[in-house]
Amino acid sequence: METTNHPAAGVPQLDAQLCFALYSTSLAMSKLYRKLLRGLGLTYSQYLVMMVLWEKNELTVSEVGERLFLDSATLTPLLKRMEAAELITRTRAANDERQVIIKLTPHGDALRHEAAKLPPSILQATQCTLDQVVGMKQQLDQLRSSLMNASA
């Protein structure tokens, strides 16, 4: 049987695509985080913002956006919901009213202790060693950098 006449000949196969492996793995990771974050009352996107602020509190919207690779149009509605949930406050910078400063509330800051319990659960779910996870993360960081450079 000749495969060149087959309708799928020369067409990219889904299971052979790196993009699909990344996408479906991201979906699986998000599903796990959704389950674990439910107890904290956070979405995954909110958790990412919180991690940035737990590292360094009182950042501008643009600084948070740079860390998360998000633009302000995407970030602003998320931050408004977080403010309504009393996780953060948003205030205009005194020296430049165009800048909005994001700061953790006491409630948002207190969640860091509960969130510290998540990484061991995630590591266990991966069924990988810590060295394997660190290696994958480094490879993904390099891949992201290469892809961002290629699309610039």
What series of H and E elements makes up the topology? HHEHHEEHHH
Beta-sheet strand percentage?
Answer: 5-15%
Helix content: 55-70%
Q: Do you know the CATH architecture of the domain at 42-111? A: Orthogonal Bundle
Q: What is the CATH top level name of the domain at 42-111? A: Mainly Alpha
C-alpha termini separation: 44 Å
Could you name the CATH homologous superfamily of the domain at 42-111?
Winged helix-like DNA-binding domain superfamily/Winged helix DNA-binding domain
Question: What's the quick description here?
Answer:
The protein has 152 residues and is mainly alpha-helical. The chain has seven helices and three strands, in the order H-H-E-H-H-E-E-H-H-H.
List the helices and strands and how they pair.
Elements: H1 18-37, H2 44-55, E1 59-60, H3 61-68, H4 72-84, E2 88-92, E3 100-104, H5 106-115, H6 118-126, H7 130-151
Helix pairs in contact: 1-6
